[in-house]
Design a protein that fits this description.
alpha/beta, Arc Repressor Mutant, subunit A, 14 helices, three-stranded antiparallel β-sheet, 2 domains, Rossmann fold
């Protein structure tokens, strides 16, 4: 029996039919320890998912609100109220890794960004051998202090190893010094080849970059930006980034000067990829996440319960503020239209 078939058979008998391991071993003509390994591999690969909900969770209600507001699939990961941001990140990384393992398959291409969240996701990937698949790096990683190649290369390699997929690295800086240099490089055949893999991707996997926070985003904490760059971000109203493309709070990005030097796919280019998975954890990600949602770059959101709560609260506050401003403007128009009363 093929191993995948054996995993499915053992899992079905154990989890669905409540058959004991000794009986399964006799039925499959193998040892009890072999059955135990099959069940473990089934869990690691995502074939079997076990969910525990020891306390009530707001997750389903939060997910529904986010889905209704933004039209995306949302998975809210339950976390303890006292969990710190590192623990919240780990739980989101585990959930995202399970989903990616389930969705990615043979003859598919997955584009992967790099960063703190993606590194955590890569550590939790289950082994799922595929055929004819590829993993491509979405944005450059080098900077003036380090090549960045080893960091991004190891991260992307973890995805390749998990899926037995061919790996395509993107050997360019995260940000060029000059937009003209970037434009020239985009004509080089070696770069064109990587860009073509990015364009053909079936899945894009990324997170949200935030300028500050308890767990800072890698692009802001590892020497990718100079002091002058940070000043530019502040002056242009930038709240965060997706794949090193910077966004304002309203989701706009086209006229930002830093983006002319950036190497990641723009929101318009990301939107051409059918499934776009974003894993997010952390209070500092709420505002840049809203910018990414407004830019339309996400189809599937994996978010921890605390961050989801703050996102919903923030959206509601903005709506209430907009309603109050509209009511005030209406009253002012009404007052201006009223005829003056003679004294």
């Amino acid at each position: 029996m093929e191993r995948e078939e054996a995993m499915l058979a053992a899992s079905s008998m154990y989890y669905l039919q409540d058959i004991k391991m000794d009986t399964i071993a006799n039925h499959l003509h193998m040892s009890r320890s072999s059955v135990s390994r099959l069940l473990r591999d089934a869990r690691d690969s995502g074939l079997v998912e076990i969910t525990l909900r020891p306390t009530p969770t707001r997750g389903p209600g939060l997910a529904k609100k986010i889905e209704t507001c933004f039209g995306i699939a949302t998975h809210v990961v339950p976390v303890a109220d006292l969990a710190d941001e590192t623990e919240r990140l780990e739980q989101v990384a585990k959930a995202t890794a399970r989903m990616v393992t389930g969705w990615f398959d043979s003859d598919m291409i997955m584009g992967v960004a790099w960063g703190t969240t993606l590194a955590a996701i890569s550590r939790h990937l289950g082994k799922k051998p595929t055929r004819g698949s590829a993993v491509v790096q979405l944005n450059g990683a080098a900077n003036v202090r380090t090549s960045g190649v080893e960091y991004a290369g190891n991260l992307i390699a973890n995805f390749g190893d998990a899926f037995d997929a061919q790996v395509h690295l993107f050997p360019v800086p995260a940000f060029f010094d000059y937009a003209e240099t970037r434009n020239a490089m985009w004509s080089e055949r070696s770069i064109v080849r990587v860009l073509e893999y990015q364009r053909r991707a079936d899945i894009a996997l990324f997170s949200i970059g935030a300028i500050a926070g308890e767990v800072p985003s890698h692009v802001y904490s590892a020497g990718y930006l100079e002091a002058g760059d940070i000043e530019t971000l502040d002056s242009e109203g930038i709240v965060g980034d997706v794949c090193t493309i910077f966004l304002r709070e309203d989701g706009s990005y086209e006229d930002l000067s830093m983006n002319a030097r950036a190497t990641g796919p723009t929101p318009a280019e990301l939107r051409a990829i059918p499934r776009r998975i974003c894993g997010v954890a952390g209070d500092n990600k709420v505002v840049p996440l809203l910018a990414a949602l407004r830019a339309g770059v996400i189809t599937d959101l994996v978010i921890d319960e605390q961050t989801a709560t703050k996102l919903v609260e923030h959206v509601m506050e903005l709506k209430e503020g907009a309603a109050s401003a509209e009511e005030l403007a209406f009253q002012e128009r009404q007052s201006a239209a009223e005829p003056a009363t003679a004294g």
